[in-house]
Backbone:
């Protein structure tokens, strides 16, 4: 079912960023909950580029619709709780979670409506 109150081409998308502070080859992972996908980068700058490309690619998919749980008023605190629960669900221990910094980025998308041909 499509979420009617939001326009996927004119909104902000939350991105949950995990930065593992232990030495890793790829320490940055971004999860985009509205697309149910993630990407990664070796640096924060590389991750920004990957997230930007991924959001654009997802929006180009004509069949993709905003999920019903998309909430334009969701807070950073709520998103960090989702992230922490996700880490727990994956079996990440409390000690390991202390080494993972979680932050929230917001990507604003503003585009003209597509014209039908």
Residues:
């Amino acid at each position: 079912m499509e979420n009617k109150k939001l326009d996927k081409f004119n909104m902000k998308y939350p991105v949950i960023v995990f930065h593992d502070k232990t030495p890793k080859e790829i320490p940055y992972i971004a999860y985009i909950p509205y697309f149910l996908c993630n990407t990664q980068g070796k640096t924060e700058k590389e991750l920004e580029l990957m997230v930007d490309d991924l959001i654009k690619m997802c929006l180009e998919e004509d069949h993709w619709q905003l999920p019903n749980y998309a909430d334009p008023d969701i807070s950073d605190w709520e998103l960090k709780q989702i992230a922490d629960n996700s880490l727990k669900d994956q079996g990440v221990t409390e000690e390991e979670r202390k080494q993972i910094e979680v932050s929230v980025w917001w990507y604003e998308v503003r585009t003209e409506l597509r014209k039908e041909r």
User: Anything to note?
Assistant: Confidence is low (pLDDT under 50) at residues 113-117. The first strand starts at residue 10 and ends at 20.
